[in-house]
Amino acid sequence: MAHENGWTFLDDRGRRAAAPRTPVRPVAYIQAGAALCDLGIRPVAVFGSAHDGAAADPVKAGRLPDDTVYLGPGPALDDAAVLDTGPDLLVAVAYGAGGPVYGLDPDTAERIEERLPVVVLDVGQERSLDRMRTRFAELAVSLGAPPPTAPTDGAGEALRAAAHGAGGARVLALSPAGPESVHVARPGAWPDLRALADHGVTLAAPAPGAGVNWSTTDWDRAALLEPDVVLLDVRANAAPPESLARSAGWREIAARARIVPWNPELPCSARAHHAFLRSVAEALTARQD
Fold it and tell me: Across all residues in the chain, what is the average pLDDT?
């Protein structure tokens, strides 16, 4: 919040970021930057994670303007590379309220925090989409954005109606590793997938075993889950569909299921979350036609 004594914000680590005046040049992890942009705050620069490359992933970037400075994968950055952009705030995410700053080397993050206020917001599996949206909106408002308006697009209602009409159609989320293997999402570990279940969607899940967020298996085993709708990870680090042609299991899945592009790192904004819910609703409805 901003007041006569300066700006402060209590982040999800329980740390209070503070500055003499409201920051106007945030640098952010790309998911956080895309969320801030949706909410009316444009970051001066963004950085990626260890999964990202030399160019910004357009899927993660959301509606960030094309000329937004992309600093590269966070683990390759030192504090000087971040500070050289002239920021007055760092906005990052963590997977768990007590987790480290995601995407940056811990020592780099610590050195930045000695020079800048840092806000870390939790996007981990214990958070709901509603809570993540609320926290990012609170941050954006503290930085001068207008309060977000209540959603009026009916995405949740459309999804609930589509799920009811789909007669138990199974939705499976996965991230292709290549023609030989695939990462199948464990639905309970993903806030966006839990949101689907909360709206009545039937989710296909891999068998219990290794992997907290994903079960890594081959395409033939994934096909045995018999999905009717597939949420396909389309981030740059996932293998593209055209590389999977020689996999019989993938061909079987693609032949029976409607494929919906999926970003597992959705911007934490109503725009992004409701677009995701609506995309699943549309796929379930189309399956009934």
Answer: 95
Interatomic CA distance for residues 18 and 287, integer angstroms: 51
Q: What is the residue range of 132's domain? A: 2-142
Q: Considering 120, 142, 164, which residue would you say is the last residue of a domain?
A: 142
Token pair of 128 as six digits: 């709901």
pLDDT for 4 equals: 59
Q: How many structural domains does the chain have? A: 2
* Residue 150 placed within a domain: no
Q: Which of 89, 118, 142 is the last residue of a domain?
A: 142
Which contiguous run of DSSP H or E holds residue 79? helix 79-83
Please state, in angstroms and rounded to a whole number, the distance separating the CA atoms of residues 170 and 64: 33
pLDDT beyond 80 at 112: yes
Cβ atoms 249, 223 nearer than 8 A: yes
Cα–Cα nearest to 221, from 180, 259, 190, 254: 180
